[in-house]
Write a structure and sequence with these properties.
With 303 residues, the chain is of the alpha/beta class. The chain is 38% helix and 19% strand. Strand 1, helix 5 and strand 2 form a beta-alpha-beta unit. Helix 1 packs across helix 2, helix 1 crosses helix 3 and helix 2 packs across helix 3. The longest helix is centred in the first third of the chain and has 28 residues.
Length: 303
């Protein structure tokens, strides 16, 4: 059984990467602030450690990797990237940056708002691992309260629960909708007419707001566990229900759903707020995310 190859240094691997990316030994030397002879020596040492020729010595212009050199280069980039990531994480820890952020949002938060915020978050904090939970109603506050999530975007908040801090952000406009063939979709209805038809309502998976109904007009209701299923049932003509305007805008424009004219349905604005525990103040990454949501208009027709 042959002996294992020697152990290359990180510096040697970085020199290899520099030579390939710069296009030559001299260019790599200028990039790294070293003499060309030092670059050549580092490559020779790396080849000696590995027992492989990494460059085709017959190439007359730009250095050309051998097949073995291409494999080693890919691994060198992976190792260098991992080390860079480790150093960035450690620097973040030294600066007080949380290594991980657990974030829970209300299912009614429009997807475009959430995606835009998290895409910007990834750019601002590339070393912070994000754990995202999507819940309904009181389940958001429950996950923050029990410590599963550090920060939440919760709905229906009028005041802060005990031991919690909250700040109002832009809410969501809710509109009553049904499929075009639904009896309520035929025009303006009389007061109380909606109560005679099945209303699809999001169920609460927590004890925080259990037993409390929001925008429920009658006793004939089906409780649905997630917003996506509710949306599909509405499109299929199974009942009617309130939906975030942003989520059904395309359906309304295409005629797949109809906005209902219900005298009993007031201009429903689903309030939303940022939520965190008093005894666990948010770190730099969580504060940045909070500031992002707080910068949005408090009430927007597009919400």
């Amino acid at each position: 059984m042959s002996d294992l190859p020697g152990q290359p240094t990180l510096d040697q691997l970085r020199v290899l990467i520099a030579v390939v990316e710069s296009g030559g030994l001299a260019a790599a030397g200028r990039r790294l602030g070293r003499a060309t002879s030092a670059i050549s020596y580092a490559i020779a040492q790396l080849e000696g450690q590995l027992g492989l020729a990494l460059f085709d010595r017959h190439a007359t212009r730009r250095p050309r990797l051998t097949e073995a050199g291409q494999v080693v280069l890919a691994e060198a980039r992976s190792v260098a990237g991992s080390i860079d990531g480790l150093r960035a994480k450690v620097k973040g820890l030294l600066d007080g940056l949380e290594p991980e952020l657990s974030f829970v949002v209300d299912a009614l938060l429009p997807a475009e708002r959430l995606v835009a915020a998290l895409a910007a978050f990834q750019v601002a904090f590339p070393t912070v691992t994000l754990r995202l939970h999507v819940e309904t109603l009181g389940a958001v506050g429950q996950l923050v309260r029990d410590g599963t999530a550090t920060l939440g975007v919760a709905g229906t908040m009028h005041s802060a629960p005990e031991g919690m801090m909250f700040q109002a952000i832009a809410g969501v406009r809710m509109v009553p909708v049904a499929a075009p063939g639904h009896p309520l979709a035929r025009g303006r209805t009389a007061p109380g007419a909606a109560a005679a038809h099945v209303q699809l309502v999001l169920s609460d998976r927590s004890a925080v707001t259990a037993g409390k109904d929001f925008y429920v007009l009658g006793s004939r209701s089906w409780r649905i566990a997630d917003l996506g299923t509710k949306h599909r049932l509405l499109l299929a003509g199974v009942g009617w229900g309130g939906m975030p305007e942003a989520l059904v805008r395309d359906d309304l424009a295409a005629g797949r759903l109809v906005r209902l004219s219900l005298p009993d349905w007031a201009d429903a604005h689903y309030r939303m707020a940022l939520l965190h525990r008093v005894d666990t103040p948010p770190g730099p990454a969580a504060r940045w995310l909070m500031a992002r949501f707080l910068a949005e208009p408090q009430r927007s027709a597009a919400a």
